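Below is how a single chain appears once it has passed through the pipeline. First comes the sequence as given, then the structure the pipeline wrote out for it. We keep one example in the README because the format questions we get most often are answered faster by looking than by reading.
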Amino acid sequence: MGSNEKRRTESSICQIGIPKRFESLAVGHTIMAVTCQQARTDITMYITKCGGNPKDWYVGIAADPRSRLFDEHQVDENKGSWIYRTLDSDGDARSVERHFHERGYQGAGGGGDDDTCGVYAYRITSQTKE
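Resulting structure:
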């Protein structure tokens, strides 16, 4: 793997089942960073499959999306609806985050640093911490 390539593992779980498009991204599979367009498409398709309005979903960025999702936001890893993607740069991650915020999705925006290349989304529940 080249030095410019980023490795990551991820899982996306939907309360109504993992969409076919995401089955290959289950825990344990290594995949490369995605483009802004691919991240927007993947997240939009996942949210559409899981359902809900933009106000029911939180979109943010983090250097460590898994920790942010499960430790800080307290998303249920096994039963919650969540997805994340890793991009090539913090600028790309911020662009994807801004795309969703401009469309009414919840989130703070403006956080992170140069290592913040992950963008994540989760369905807000009574157990999650925004």
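The radius of gyration is 13 Å.

See the next section for the split statistics.
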